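Task: complex structure prediction.
Instruction: return structure tokens for all chains below.
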Amino acid sequence: MSLINKIFMLLLVLTFAGCNDPVVDIEDFEYIPKIVVEGFIYPGEKIDNIKIMRNFKVTNKADSTILFLTPADNNVEAFINDIKLKFNPVTKYYYSDELIPDYETAYHLEIKASFDNINLKTTAFTVTPNKGFKFYQNDLGEIDYKSSDIYLKFKRSKRENEFYVFSIVAENASENNFIYDNEYFPGYDKLDVIDELPSLAYNSEDIRIPFTTKEDTVSFLLDKQNLLFSTSYRIIGYAGDKNFKDYFYTVDNMLQLDGNYIKPIMHFTNDGIGIFGSAVKDKLTLRIVNN
Amino acid sequence: MKLLGKIFLLLTVIEFSIQAQTVSGFIYDSESGESLIGANVFIPDLETGASTNLSGYYVITGVKPGTYEILISYVGYTTQNKKIIIKKDQELNLDIRLLPSAIKTDEVVVTDESDKLTVNLFNKPISKMELSGTEINKIPRLIEADLLRALQTTPGVATLNDFSSAIYVRGGTPDQNLFLVDGTDVYNPDHAFGIFSTFNTEAIKKVDFHKGGFSAEYGGRLSSLVNVINNDGNQKEFKGLINTSLIAASTNLQIPISEIGSVSISFRRTLLDVFLKNNKEVPDYYFYDGNVKAYFNLGKNDKLTLSVFKGKDDLNIGNKGKEKMPRFNYFWGNITSSLNWKHVFSPKLFSSIWITSSLFDSNFDLKAYGIEESNKIQDVSIKTTFEYFQSSNLHIKFGGELKILKQEFHQSNNTTSIINEYDGTMASAFVTAIWKPNVLTEIEMGIRTMYFNTDKKFFTYSPRFNIKYRLREDVNLKLAIGEFYQPLHRVDRFFFSSIWSLSNKHTPIASSDHYIAGIQKAFGEEYSVELEGYYKTYSDISRFNYFIANDAFPTSYENDVAIYKNLSSVFLTGKGRSYGIELLIRKNTGLINGWISATYGESKYQFDKLNNNQEFIPRHSRDLTVNTIINTNISKLWANIFGGSYDKNGSNWKLNVNFVYSTGQPLTTVSSSYYSQTLPDWGNNSGGPIPISYRQYPGEMNNYTLPAYIRLDLGISYESKLFGLDLETFFQVFNATGRKNVWFISYDELIEDGKRKQKIDTMYMLPMLPSFGFRLKF
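Output:
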């Protein structure tokens, strides 16, 4: 057989091989068990809401009955600064009666647990922000949606990596108290609102302040796109630490422009993912009306 | 590398005696007057010769007085045999015009030693591929013939997907490729969001593609050099060409200017916006590019060329009366110009001086959301290269370049303004010597220095070493080692144009070391086999920091708008290495010709903050890539197999095949799912809805390999006459088997029995795409 014929034969074989459509099987994806932590601590407040959970293989149904890791079922041992955390079987959160975090202090979390017949461990630490952050007014009263701009005026916790996030939650939000004549979602009807109720009711805004900024007070303009219900709003401001900031900006930002995933920044060693962060927080309320 | 520098200095102080005259001149195409690059001139009696440089100039030194036969040859041209008389104290200037003859034949005719395939292989620098405009047009295409897609078929070049014409050379990224068009840097060689390149193949005379280890004459990029030389234009008679495809029409006109020169004008424009003007579903989009090159022959010793290029892409969405759609305008393009003066100071000293300017800018606005962006890089340069032909054994090149660079990026919305602006000055100088200590060996040693200044000063020097050795008459060994630096960095954005940034106090100059070894063997006069191994290291390379929104802090606030200026966190800095083996089996002539290339390689990168600072395989890394290009004349093949007549100047059917196999691209998959709220208080809302906190967590970076990429492209063309003019009608099928090559995957949430799990949707690359068109030459 001449070389040319051999090349044609090779091409023919490869071409037929190429006719089969390729298949990507999600079952082939590697599952890596992780301890999932959702834990925030606040200076001056008891530690009472550290969630220690597990992750699931992506093809497995997430089972809420085994979601939370418990000392009884998963041999969980959790410590903050060597103080053992207790488990509340009702809330399924871990807490401590002994530890009240202070400002500008390092707290070291250490967890051991087992599930799927694997022993896992992780550590993380947070440094609580310094004192200072506080709203000047904790109740802004009733505000007409169509009135002038709404500002949040607060005192800073001056520090490096100075970051604030405001959780803006519409309490009792429903399709009945949605402001339909808003400028952002002009064509929305009740069904649209029902479909997207959580994302319309829960919003956040954030601000980062350069370390060189001299002013102690900041007036932050709220975006009315986040105030679309005629109802009471609770706004909780967090002056978060670096862990809080990194988690907030990256946890939902994993899909790159080319369709590939990238890991969020989470600051856990070994087998941990999630958030162990700290913040100085303050609360503010207001009521939106649409006259 | 220090040792290389010492050897180089030693070499340059060696003196060579001059005892004889020179024969020098330019070699031209006799029909068009175009200078011929790489033509061979050989004096058999003296067993000495030379090849023409990029300007078509040659010098043979050491010719003692006497009468000689001189042979001038070039692939596709009739070899000329001339008698020359060299007199004492007289330099012979001999300009030669070769007659194109072999173009219509399939056979190779070797007329002298210098024309042998093995000699041509030896003369070719390591890791270099040469392509002509004609060869690029032969390769089956994705609708339009395209230089970068042609380069994608060569060994050592990887592609990311069907939608991108970008080339990843030996593990490097596209920003590490230096694109020169008539001596001018081109910064963003993309049209149509990267699907096509800006190079109009109808204007191209020759492309030199260096995949690594290139001479000290070139610098400023880490991986490769794509040196595009456009046609000067026909100096004898008016010639023209019209080409149409499904999406674009192009033309090339070549016009003589009296007796002194010529003009070559090329223009291409897409026509979809014209044909689909009334279709409100399709946004307004077009691109065009145009090139004008004027050539002036100012005498035996002076040639002047002026080249201007302009290309533009323009996208408008929401302009066709779809009121619900916000208006989005986006346009981008390159404008380049160069003035090149070639001067022969003496037969042994040839110079080329360029004054160039290159501007790339892109702009978009989405006024409904207050979003605007402008992006620009501007480069004004003066550079010069001198070639001194000291003797038949020593050829020295030296020169310098001064670049003034300006880079601006502004992006703003109602709350944020991002500004990235740098002015830079780059001054480079190089010297390189090509020394032939004996007939079997050629050594090139050079050094390139660079001074770069933005808000920080940098100084680099790059030694380069290259050796060729003829092991046997038909076997060559080659080795190259070099150090390369790059003071520009690019933010690659999938849909929007890339942003260039200059090295500064936050982003260092990147560097790369190349180690390349190769062996070449000629089998007769038709087949050649080249095997090369490479190892590259990278230091201080840059990659866009995808978490810039997290890492960046505003520099100030103005009217509630956060200003981010010259951020330190735009790029992540890292290092890496690439290694691999490439095989190229090439058959340049004959009834069936083309090449088969195979590359087995791997790249590993490591960046701060990525993949827990661990090494990872980048997405463009492919273990194995095989490309096959086959061209044949079906009419002649038919006549050969089944008998019958065949008229080489008559109507002909031609077949072009491109087959690609490569291992699939690495991908980061989701490894698990978990629950976690975005903010601490979001799990508590009595009486209201609670947001779903179900999330996915990615596995190790690029740990999964997608299924293999396989594609077969076919092109059939029919060459005939129309009113005495040459007409080529072509029909092309991209992805002829219709294979669904995987582009990427997306995840969908599935709820079964009230519990959540994941399923995947597969996104595919281009399906089977037929296209047709014609080329008419007049």
